[in-house]
């Protein structure tokens, strides 16, 4: 069993401005070095941190006004957009390119070390493209693999128990020395993960999420994160997503690369929407993949506990209105945006048999 740790949690208030308010609420922020940090998605006791300054443009404008497609090519960046305050150009400078893939700055200089990272047969890895349900999946995996329950998980800093390989904290050296069984997360593409993983070592759980919901969540995340300070429009951010201009590279390549390896003995490919559609089957798949022995009654208890996690996620006051639900894109995309997104999606996924539920 992994060690449970009591911890204080950073709480983000509900995003009332997404429901029509003209002014965003003040929000508590993580320390400066908590770049791209995944915080648990349920309400926790807040830390006493300085409140975030109100952004220069009310987010209501971002989601209401700037989502409208008003002429011009949807996927061609307008010169005027590149000259606005807190420009996408500033956003661009925060990334670097490695082997044709844009990566966050904290990955710089450590990719070779990641490739040679030593694995153990008992390792359990969770790999996702950002905003694909990582926080919820890690709790489900911990519950199934460790025999925990939702109340235990609610008292622990689960992000500390499941570190992200490429993040600055805790760092590769510390992760390497963790006690087995190690539970490790990453957002890196398949080809950048440790070479030993490609040879069948360790167990890898990959989760994919439908790209329309994902891009809404990813945009909201970038707008709220102090270290990124993205203030472009959702329309412009969506173009960047479709043109592979965001951190961790192309979503299309990311998911298709893992989809091609779904039959590998050490890979389990899951879809975010299945947690809401059929948690029973998903938990059964996880238990079988992880070698967890359980009878029918024990499996039913695990499914009930996992559904409780989903319920807590949906009811949490700390969640924004757009996080977690399936089909949130329908509240944001215009008809024109949706048509253009679908066209690009078909072009990029035309050779793949991977499909998604865009609403339930």
TrEMBL record:
Belongs to the sulfotransferase 1 family. It comes from Solea senegalensis (Senegalese sole). Keywords: Transferase. Residues 23-56 are annotated as: Disordered. Coiled coil: none annotated. GO terms for molecular function: sulfotransferase activity. This is Sulfotransferase. Its EC number is 2.8.2.-. Residues 122-352 form the Sulfotransferase domain. Pfam families: Sulfotransfer_1. It comes from the Eukaryota. It is an enzyme of class 2 (transferase).
């Amino acid at each position: 069993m992994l060690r449970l740790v009591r911890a204080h949690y950073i709480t983000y208030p509900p995003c009332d401005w997404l429901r029509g308010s003209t002014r965003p609420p003040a929000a508590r922020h993580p320390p400066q070095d908590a770049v791209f940090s995944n915080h648990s998605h349920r309400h926790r006791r807040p830390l006493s941190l300085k409140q975030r300054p109100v952004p220069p443009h009310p987010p209501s404008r971002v989601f209401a006004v700037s989502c409208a497609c008003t002429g011009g090519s949807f996927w061609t960046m307008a010169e005027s957009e590149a000259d606005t305050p807190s420009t996408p150009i500033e956003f661009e400078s925060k990334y670097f390119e490695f082997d044709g893939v844009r990566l966050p700055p904290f990955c710089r200089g450590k990719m070779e070390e990641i490739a040679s990272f030593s694995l153990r047969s008992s390792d359990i890895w969770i790999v996702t493209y950002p905003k694909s349900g990582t926080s919820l999946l890690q709790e489900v995996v911990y519950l199934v693999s460790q025999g925990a329950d939702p109340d235990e998980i609610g008292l622990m800093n689960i992000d500390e128990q499941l570190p992200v390989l490429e993040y600055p904290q805790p760092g590769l050296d510390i992760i390497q020395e963790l006690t087995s069984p190690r539970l490790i997360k990453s957002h890196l593409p398949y080809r950048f993960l440790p070479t030993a993983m490609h040879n069948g070592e360790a167990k890898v759980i990959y989760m994919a999420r439908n790209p329309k919901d994902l891009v809404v969540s990813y945009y909201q995340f970038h707008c709220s994160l102090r270290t990124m300070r993205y203030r472009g429009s959702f329309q412009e951010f969506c173009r960047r997503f479709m043109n592979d201009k965001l951190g961790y590279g192309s979503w299309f390549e990311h998911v298709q690369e893992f989809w091609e390896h779904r039959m590998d003995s050490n890979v389990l490919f899951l879809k975010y929407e299945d947690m809401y559609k059929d948690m029973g089957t998903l938990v059964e798949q996880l238990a079988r993949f992880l070698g967890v022995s359980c009878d029918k009654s024990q499996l039913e208890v695990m499914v009930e506990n996992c559904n409780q996690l989903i319920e807590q996620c949906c009811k949490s006051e700390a969640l924004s209105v757009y996080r977690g639900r399936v089909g949130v894109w329908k509240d944001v995309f215009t008809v024109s945006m949706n048509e253009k997104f679908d066209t690009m999606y078909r072009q990029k996924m035309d050779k793949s048999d991977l499909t998604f539920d865009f609403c339930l």
